[in-house]
Amino acid sequence: MPPLLLLLTFLLPPEAGTEEIIGGHEAKPHSRPYMALVLFTSGEKRSCGGVLVQEGFVLTAAHCEGSSMTVILGAHNIKELEKTQQVIRVRKAIPHPDYDPDTLSQDIMLLQLEIEAKLTRAVQPLRLLGNVTQVNPGDKCLVAGWGQMSPSGTSASKLQEVVLTVQNELKCKSAFRVYSAITEICVGDPRNTKSCFKGDSGSPLVCNNVVQGIFSSGKDDGVPPGVFAKVSYFLPWIKRTMKHF
């Protein structure tokens, strides 16, 4: 199927229940060449974000697993056929073995691609460092994604980005039924409206050009904070898994 038709097949209306950026702005085209759009079927056609961490692997959220999984790299406007886009099927989805779909704990997954991505100006991995340093409350990090720009608004066709502030773990412990400071990061100032929302599940939290988190969940009304899987905790599993496959 041509890339444009594939994209249009998977584009979702605002009410479809995907996580997206609120309070952000359009990113400079292809300035985030590590960004991936993950398309899949789970009862209905859905999409998530992701990050290319190696030519053959994309890191995303475990709850983004489904059938007919495809990754699109090098995209800015997902409603147009861009020469920069690479559409690659997923060979194997590898969720963390301790992922719990009921609580969304350990909500992280590697996608092995059928063919390795061709590295271009618009497609570049955000490689994992040997030791990912910890983030601290007050640190400002970037998240990018495609989708709704307000809880009741329409989905954006062009990549949006937003700068979010890491929060004290108590903010998430009071906002969510289950939260672990060991495996998760609390992100987004409750005093403003900037946040990830429905469609950005799986999108990376990037701090000083390092992948620190993978967006897992937020509140139904889109009010921050949100919860990200802590990449530093999962780094041994990520590296071991990529080496094995």
Automatic annotation (TrEMBL):
<keyword id="KW-0732">Signal</keyword>
<dbReference type="InterPro" id="IPR043504">
    <property type="entry name" value="Peptidase_S1_PA_chymotrypsin"/>
</dbReference>
<dbReference type="InterPro" id="IPR018114">
    <property type="entry name" value="TRYPSIN_HIS"/>
</dbReference>
<keyword id="KW-0645">Protease</keyword>
<keyword id="KW-0720">Serine protease</keyword>
<dbReference type="InterPro" id="IPR009003">
    <property type="entry name" value="Peptidase_S1_PA"/>
</dbReference>
<dbReference type="InterPro" id="IPR001314">
    <property type="entry name" value="Peptidase_S1A"/>
</dbReference>
<keyword id="KW-0378">Hydrolase</keyword>
<keyword id="KW-1015">Disulfide bond</keyword>
<dbReference type="GO" id="GO:0004252">
    <property type="term" value="F:serine-type endopeptidase activity"/>
</dbReference>
<protein>
    <submittedName>
        <fullName>Granzyme H</fullName>
    </submittedName>
</protein>
<dbReference type="Pfam" id="PF00089">
    <property type="entry name" value="Trypsin"/>
</dbReference>
<keyword id="KW-0865">Zymogen</keyword>
<dbReference type="GO" id="GO:0005737">
    <property type="term" value="C:cytoplasm"/>
</dbReference>
<dbReference type="InterPro" id="IPR001254">
    <property type="entry name" value="Trypsin_dom"/>
</dbReference>
<feature type="signal peptide">
    <location>
        <begin position="1"/>
        <end position="18"/>
    </location>
</feature>
<feature type="domain" description="Peptidase S1">
    <location>
        <begin position="21"/>
        <end position="243"/>
    </location>
</feature>
<dbReference type="GO" id="GO:0006508">
    <property type="term" value="P:proteolysis"/>
</dbReference>
